Amino acid sequence: MSEIRKVVVAYSGGLDTSVILTWLKESYGCDVIAFAADVGQKEELTGLEKKALDTGASKVYIDDLREEFVRDFVFPMLRADAVYEGTYLMGTSIARPLIAKRQIKIAEAEKADAVCHGATGKGNDQVRFELTYMALNPSINIIAAWRDPKWPFDSRQSMFDYAEKHGIPLPLTKEKPYSSDRNLLHISHEGGILEDPWNEPGEDMFALTVSPESAPDKPTYVEIDFEQGNPVAVDGVKMSPAVLLDHLNELAGRNGIGRVDMVENRFVGMKSRGVYETPGGTVLWAAHRAVESITMDREVMFLRDSLIPKYAQLVYFGFWFSPERIALQKMVDEGQQAVTGTARLKLYKGNCIVVGRKSPLSLYSEDLASFEKRGLYDQKDATGFIRLNALRLKMEALLRRKHGRRRK
User: Fold this and answer.
1) Spatial distance between the Cα atoms of 20 and 144, rounded to a whole number of angstroms
2) Where, residue-wise, is CATH 3.40.50.620 in the chain?
3) Whether 125 is catalytic
4) Active-site residue, selected from the candidate residues 12, 16, 113, 180
5) Given 3.30.565.10, 2.40.160.40, 3.40.50.620, 3.40.50.2000, which CATH number is that of 6-65+91-175?
6) 263-272 pLDDT per residue, tens
7) Cα 86 to the chain's mean position, in Å?
8) Which of 115, 174, 241, 362 sees the fewest Cβ atoms within 10 Å?
9) CATH 3.90.1260.10 region(s) of the chain?
10) From the CB of residue 123, how many other CB atoms can be counted at a distance below 10 Å?
11) Which residue has the higher pLDDT, 122 or 223?
């Protein structure tokens, strides 16, 4: 690593990055610029600039990236119906490449020598940040604080002690040490009692959703319009991407939608327990699948669905800017050209239920599907169809009988 005179830090105001600002000044004697990406943290950004300046930053960027985040990162992932390990909608994963992208732009504009992140040496975020840094500026110096030889901390407790010694205010307490990450797509909760996967999280931990038990006793109906795979309106009202997702978060959250408690496989090789709240994203995923069900060709959907695990893995592992993810996205988006229509959903006590779907480009034909009508489809045609598909099965059965073998 070359001499570090100026560094741009991905700053959240949490425990790690709060300590990092002061530590960088002490350890490297360099100019420290703090960058916070507004991707929907809301009140968490209050007072962030003053706090960063008070704890070592010479300059602070707080950039509003909410629309870009939803339009260029969340929605492309939604078009792919990406879910990691069948459960996780990847709210943290998808925010990291955008934050790192903007961080690199700031570093270049400020002529900084390095970028720095506060991701731990055990997690996925270190990979996501650094893969993006290297993809966008392969010559930039990277300070990974938790892996830096000058890093003196070996636990959260030691960081708490350092913060108290230097008068660094923190959003966590020793009594409630949840590590949370919030954006417009979700909020994640890790650490503390959650590190034991048998422990049920306390209700006071949740921020975006009420418990299903506390949700209204009357269901909420919502209609979502899509154009070429992207949600564009809720209940007939056109909205920008960020406003739409924020609105659905509130609507779904008060109905107890979107809680996930899972043990996932991190890229670095270990299992990790996380609790996530993804209210609006859960509704959008269900609505998108509903519109796809009447507008996508069967074989195109089958091919795309077979690639969902790989697409999700690329996002989760941090390969957003990789050529393979970009190539997959082009294939996904080609299949989304006809995904235009409306889904109607019923939200009730933690359940998100599709109750209707319609589209001007629908491939669904009531005449073809109806048991009552006779249209383009002639049922007699099924006889030859079935016999042709059964031919190889009949041949195998005849061969088994000839040689006296029975199927187990």
Assistant:
1) 10
2) 6-65+91-175
3) yes
4) 16
5) 3.40.50.620
6) 999 998 999 9
7) 13
8) 174
9) 181-358
10) 18
11) 223
Of 170 and 112, the one with more pLDDT: 112
177 within 8 A of 205, measured Cβ to Cβ = no
Instruction: Please tell me the predicted confidence (pLDDT) of residue 169.
Output: 80
Among candidate residues 31, 81, 125, 148, the one labeled active-site is: 125
Q: Is 154 a catalytic residue?
A: no
User: What's residue 212's pLDDT?
Assistant: 97
Residue 16 annotated in active site: yes
In this structure, how many other beta carbons lie within 10 angstroms of the beta carbon of residue 406? 6
Question: Which residues 6+ apart lie within 8 Å of 11 measured at CB?
Answer: 17, 20, 21, 34, 35, 36, 48, 52, 57, 60
pLDDT digit string (tens) for 210-229? 999 999 999 999 999 999 99
179 is catalytic: yes
Crossing angle of helices 241-253/279-295, nearest 10°?
110
**What strands lie across the sheet with 6-10, from one edge to the other?**
59-64, 31-38, 6-10, 114-117, 141-144
Instruction: Find the catalytic residue in 12, 93, 179, 180.
Output: 179
Out of 66, 79, 96, 102, which one is annotated catalytic?
Answer: 96
DSSP code, position 200: P
Q: Which whole-number Å values give the CA distances from 394 to 337, 383, 384, 387, 398, in the listed order?
A: 41, 15, 14, 9, 6
The model's pTM is 0.92
Beta bridge partners of 34: 9, 60
